[in-house]
Amino acid sequence: MHTARHLLPPANPTHIYQRITQRATIHLTGTVLGMVTWDGEKTRLTLASETLFLPGKAPERLAETTTFRPVHGKIRLSLRGRPTRPIRSGDRLLLMATVDRIHNYRTVGSFDYQLHMAAREIYVSGWIPSPDHIWPIPARASLPQKLKELPGQVRQEMGDFLAATLEPGPASLYQALLIGDRSRVPPEVLEHFKISGCMHLLAISGMHMGLLGLMLYGSLLWLLKRSTRLMLAFHVETLAALLTMAPLFLYALVAGMHLPVLRALIMALLLLLAVVLRRQRSLIHVLAAALLVILAIQPLALFTVSFQLSFAAVLGIILAIPRLQEKFARAGHGSTRIRTWIQGAFLVSCLATIATLPIMLFHFNRISLIGPVMNLLVEPLLCLWALPIGLVAAPLIPIQAELARGLLTLGSLGLEGARNLTAAASHIPLASVQTITPSAGEIITYLAALSLFFLPGKKPWCLIGGAVLLVLVTFHFTAGLWFTKEPGQTTVAFLDVGQGSSTFIRMDDGTTLLVDGGGNHSSRFDIGERVIGPYLARQRVWRLDQMIITHPDSDHTSGSGFLLDRFRPKIIHVNTIDPDDHRSFGQLLSRARERNIPVVVGRKGEVYHQGVNTSLRCLGMNGTGDLSSLSGNDLGLVIRLDHGPVGFLFPGDISIRAEKVLLADKWSGRRLAADLLLAPHHGSDSSSSRDFISRVNPRLIVASAARAKSGWFPGQRNLQLWRQEQIPLLTTGNSGTITCSTDGVRLECTTFEKKRLRLK
Fold this sequence. Notes:
Blueprint: H1 2-7, H2 16-19, E1 24-38, E2 42-53, E3 69-70, E4 74-80, E5 92-101, H3 113-118, E6 122-128, E7 134-136, H4 143-165, H5 168-179, H6 187-195, H7 206-224, H8 228-233, H9 236-254, H10 259-277, H11 283-297, H12 305-330, H13 335-364, E8 366-368, H14 371-393, H15 401-425, E9 432-434, H16 440-454, H17 460-477, H18 479-482, E10 490-494, E11 503-506, E12 512-515, H19 527-538, E13 546-548, H20 554-557, H21 560-567, E14 571-574, H22 583-594, E15 599-601, E16 607-610, E17 614-620, E18 638-643, E19 646-650, H23 656-664, H24 666-669, E20 676-678, H25 690-696, E21 700-703, H26 716-724, E22 729-731, H27 732-735, E23 738-742, E24 747-750, E25 756-758
Parallel strand pairs: 4-6, 12-13, 13-14, 14-15, 19-20, 20-21, 21-22
Antiparallel strand pairs: 1-2, 1-5, 2-3, 2-4, 5-6, 5-7, 8-9, 10-11, 10-23, 11-12, 16-17, 17-18, 18-19, 23-24, 24-25
């Protein structure tokens, strides 16, 4: 009941979520919460809102803000570039921003950003157009307010000190290790850590808290034992454990008290409490207690990846502890003991990998095969060298900056070593294997097999049963690599990729194709990796048979580089091999050459697929009449799919001029009639002429356009024309991914929210 209540959005009418019902430009006052981050491209901050003013016309003087309405609740704001004045935790600001409720890509498999932010009690986000739209508000904070904002300020100062002291590479890694801020870690470095299976080492976790607790406990115990009076008056081990708790709590506050930090803090405090109460018999009770406390505080944590991975990994290690204890008890001395420790560390890493495997595959569709070995190499550099030195240097920053600088420089040697190791390991063939998403049945079967191996007093039949289940689930999971399942019907899915276009087609004989692969994109957000790829993995696609790029514009190609690497299409059809100034398209062509994937320029009349019931062919534009007056989008590929008498038309981004050329061409013009039309150029008024719509005569039009572009895509002229012609319209921005299926007789379309529309 507690969790269900938190799954609902805020109901208080004064909450900013209730005041912001659609995209709007507003003026807002509030107080900065926590650390302001900078990733090299954008500045991000969280504001505790106080007052709100609509419609967003800038007041010339603060005295004119009397019409502001009171609000409360957090809002996440981003600014391209950096603010002209430093912003710190606790600052009060007046700013202008374009805001909206947080929305997800409504494509199966994509990251649930809405739930991720709801776990932080953030339901609204926005963009600040310019640093000039931020105005500081002079304010005198009370002592409780100053104390509340102190951890965020300390975190900010530590981040700035690291950035100013070290080179960008080590500084970004130290920020991740010490204060939990990965925003400045370059994407390629993060990818290397992912491939090598060491990504978890860049998050503040039980390793950090355990190491800090051990250092504090050991130091305090040594100091307390220097006093005979204290040793006679108190149980110094208990006293040291109690004194260790407060610094751990303060460090968690400085680190941002995010979910992994909170989990590590609670487990560390419970372990110390177990020491105090002499109750250390079962670590699994500590794990269960930590889980219960976290879910009581943050119930939505249950749905977060970090929560699931951290508890699964620790559970796997706890279950292996009895076996490790037996191994260490039999260990001798010298080289034998060192070998035993290395074997134990390797076993722990393997068990953590095995325990988290279904979660990793479900959320990320990848597993690092070199992870256990790389953890043995990287962990000492980060956790036994860089991290301890960083933890010692951190409290010295405000009092002995030069000494802290020297220590951090020394610690950065470990960071550089870890970065070089992971970079080298990322080039090992099959270092990281990318897979499909496992089904619920496969996950349950895998866990059942593991449980048979870990049963107390297990018998031979348990081991045999577990092995059989593992073989069966492995075969079922990888079946798509060995044979093609023929679904018997054709499925066409228009993916919600924001302002862009990507369409997945699965023929009735199992052939898979992707028409375009672009959408919203930034240096740290790849639409192919975050949205299209996860969708294909959910559809259990191991490899694409074909990829079709209608034209080079980034909103059709921005994710195609990742998709080529991940799904290795057997052939790529394009309208040109001249990348011109289209960066993402040029990268696609380069990667295709490196991997010996054929790239073919499509022409009118070419058949891309011919099955018993289905066909896919090119209607233009290359080879279609006189193209001398056309350029850019108008030279894109126009594709037609048929399953029996049911037809689909994909005209890319052609305009009215190209439509006229198609209509005038005898061969192409006769083949334009289709049951479903993907609106040219996302429904822009520059396309979809009356003559073109009349010739196609669609039963349904689908527009691939972002929700934020409503009013422009589709255009008002087209909306009016389609209403006059009584043609139903679905847009990906409003309906999410639209999946249409046909058996050659009936055609049925389903939105992301399972609303159905039958056309035949």
